[in-house]
Each structure stands twice: as C-alpha cells, then as structure tokens.
Amino acid sequence: MNSVFISGCIFNSNDNDTEIDTDIVIGMISNISGFYPWMSSRDNPTLAVNVNLFNCLVEVDPISYKFVAALAENWNNPDGVTWRFFLRKGVQFHNGNLFTAEDVKFTIEYMRNMSYFSQELETISDIVIVDNYTIDIITKYPSPTLLYKLGTLYILSEGYMRTIESMNDTWPIGTGAYKLVEYVPGNHIMFDRFDDYWKGQPEVKEVTFKKFNNSKEMKNALMNGEIDICSLAVEDFKEIQNTSGFIVKSVESPGVIYLGFDFRVNDSYGFKGLKNPVSDIRVRTAMYHAINIDTIIEKNLMSAATPASQFLTPYTFGYNPDISRLPYDLELAKELMREAGYEAGFTIELDSLNSGKWINVSNEIATQLSEINITIILNPQPASIFYQKLYEKNTSLYITGFNPLEAEGLIKLLLQTSNMTKGSGVWNYGNYSNPEVDRLTEIISYTMDTEMRGRDLKEIFSLAALDIAWIPLFSTKQFYGMIDEIDWTPSPSSFYWVEEISFNK
Known about the structure:
Layout: E1 11-14, E2 17-20, E3 23-28, H1 44-50, E4 58-60, E5 67-69, E6 72-79, E7 82-87, H2 101-111, H3 115-118, E8 124-131, E9 134-139, H4 146-150, H5 158-164, E10 178-184, E11 188-193, E12 206-211, H6 215-223, E13 229-232, H7 237-241, E14 246-252, E15 256-261, H8 281-290, H9 293-300, E16 305-307, H10 330-340, E17 346-353, H11 356-369, E18 374-381, H12 383-391, E19 397-402, H13 407-415, H14 435-444, H15 450-466, E20 471-483, E21 486-487, E22 502-503
Parallel strand pairs: 3-12, 17-18
Antiparallel strand pairs: 1-2, 4-5, 6-7, 7-9, 8-9, 10-11, 11-12, 13-20, 14-20, 15-19, 15-20, 16-20, 21-22
C-alpha cells in the first residue's frame, strides 16, 4: 500500500472532533488566455477556470448538459422575436454591488465589441429594461439559439466596469462561487470562496489551479500529494485506479471524431484529371463497412472511447437515436467496391494531426482499408499546417473532430453547402452539399417551436447519414484522478465547477 500525503482534505482527529481542510489543488497543463472579459479567446482551458468567477443568465448543467436557470430564474417568449428574462433578486457581485437588469444590458452592449462575441450577439436589435429584475432581449428575427449564445456570456458588474475602463485594470469581478486572489501566469491561479454566493457556500474554501508541463508530470504530482484532482492521460488512469488512496472517474466527451471526404467529382484535390473515387457513395459506404471501430478503440485507445453513429452524442439536443452505425462487414464492402468499379482499389492520402493518438488511429484505418484494396498514404501534420490545409480544402480524406454545444451551429459549419459570403459551411472541408439539408437548415434557423425544431434537426442528421457525409468514428472518454476523500462527478464539458466538489466525511 502506498503512503500518500494528501494536500487538500486532511482529517485530523482530536478528542472526537474532526477538522477538515477544505482547500484543494487542481492540476492543469494548459495556460489560460486571461480572465473574462479581457481574455483573448474562449478556449476550453480558459473557460474551465473562468466558470468559477462568473454566472450567465442561463447555464448548462455540469452533468446533464441541459440548460438550467442561473441569474435568470425563468424566461419566456412574448412574441417570435422577444426573449423576456425574469432575473434573480438578491445576487451580489464579489465587490458587494447588487445584480440588476442594468448589468445584463451593459454586458451585452460591452461584449458586442469583443471579436469572439460580436457575431453571436449580432442578432440582437434591442435590449429593453422592463424593471430592475425583468429584461427583454429583442432580436432582428426569430433566434431559437439565443439561449446557447447567452449560455457562455458571463454577466459583468456595470458599476465596477465603468470605474476601471480607463485604468486598464483586468481584475475580474463576477457573481460566481469564487473570487480571484492571486494569478501567476504559467504557474498558478488561486481562488477564494465567495461567502455571499447566491447559491450558498460551496464546501471548498480555497482552490489553486497549478500549472504543469505535461500529463505525466501532473500525474506524478497527484501521486506525490502535491495536487488533489487532475485529468489523466489514457495510459495513466489504470495506474491511479490501482493505487490506494485514489479514485478515477470518467466522462464521455460530447464531441465526435470522424473521417471526412472530398465530395468533388472531377476537380478534386487528390485526383486531378480523374474521377474522385470517394465522391461515389458506394465507395464511401464500402469504407464505412470496412472499418472495425471496436478494434480501433481496443487497440489504439485502450478501450477509452465509445463508437459514434453521427456528429452528435445524446448530450446534445438534435441527436437522432434512430441512426445506427453501419456494421463492420468486409464482404459487403468488397461487393460495393466491385459495383463502383474499384475492385482493384485506389491510392488516397489521409490527413491527420501528428500526435500519437491520431497517428495510431490513422495507421489502423489504413490497415483495415487495405482489405478492400484502398492504399492509404498517411500525412500527419502539426495543427497549424493541418487546419490550414483543411480550410483551403486541399484534402481528399481527413480525420478531425467537433465538440458541439448545439446542433444548429454544427450543421451550419459542417453540413451546409459552403458559401463564404454567407458564412455557411465554413468547416465543410469536403464540399458536401445536399439541397434538402440546406432547406431544412434555413427552416430551423427561425423555428422557435422546440418540438418542430427537434424533428427537423433529426431529419438533417438522418439525410447526412444516408449520404455518408462522413464516417463517424468515436467519442473519447476523459479520465480524472483524485484523492479518495473528494466526491466529484466530472462534467462532459471538461470544466471544473469547483462548487460541485464536496468531501467524503
């Protein structure tokens, strides 16, 4: 049995009294890009930390991944372009200012000037304060996804922001469960519990996010008692799981890794002057049947993934439970290749990122597709080169992934016919196009009725699945190691909502 010093939860018994140290340390390997609203991007590591300082009008529940009330207790739609929010009373900012509708109006108007929010908030035409705790957000046209856009808009204190704008102060003040105490970039971030938090006091009093260079270093820090919680690399979770004093929990990612195609028939990137073989649905279907996803997950991902059937997982509204993976069927795949005139096969380049996981998965796909005489030339690249190649549509076959918060945004980026002028199909790297998908996408853009909207979203994914618009591969699992005194359920978002952490007493 290993002897481990526990940095966070120390139980000292003295004359039948138990003293609990409620300070914890969380490990991380990515730097944050700053604090809201001055952060340079809304990347996941930054949001995972900032979520503790701020609240939104509505928020995604950490576990169910569904919308729940936050600073807005409830909301409705008086008409097709108005969202009326009824705000929570008695909420304080970290500096003691009371939260009102003025703060909501100020935040939206302020964040419109931030590049990472300007496009999402452009649908808003007016903001009308009905009273201190009621506000109408009016859109230019019906905007059914407004809740999703507001679900990552942290509310600022107007009074505080107006006092510091000219001082270039970047100290964050929110309504969240924790307030910033200390920040040493590249080293650590320290938060202290906000005792006047509107939901009540969390159990964790002080939390420090400590930066490490890599996952192996962070895992060792966990085992040595320097930290209490951290994410784990797939190859490390069993070691932690088998060590006394620790527990491991996992959560499935809402993102899906998939294999994409170039749909251009006669002017494709990889087959100049020839017909592009993967433009033929029989070839795409054959490739799908020839991929044994269970083998890929077992051999290359240590079984730490779930086979995918579509772009979405059940976490996301619009997921279609009627879509199933095509079964692994090598004989059917060979028959389809014969029907398409490619019994002798062809050679095609596969683009991927150059990290170990991607290379291993690509190698396995190449091995499996060789069974139907498709020769894969692997082309692993650094992220900057890989994504530029995709944006320029200089690819025949590629592996990437997408982590959606909502389905409409995914459809407009990945499945709608590419039109850069309109901003549609920006990440539709293979020029997939289906007029019915485009028609339904226009309809859902303005459909406020949830039932109708859900029906049309499912139909879009069904159509794309019939087209073999992609080959869904898998959703990864994220593992977390923690000392066994901690009680915490990880979120699919990979955010650390510290207020959700408690202790096993």
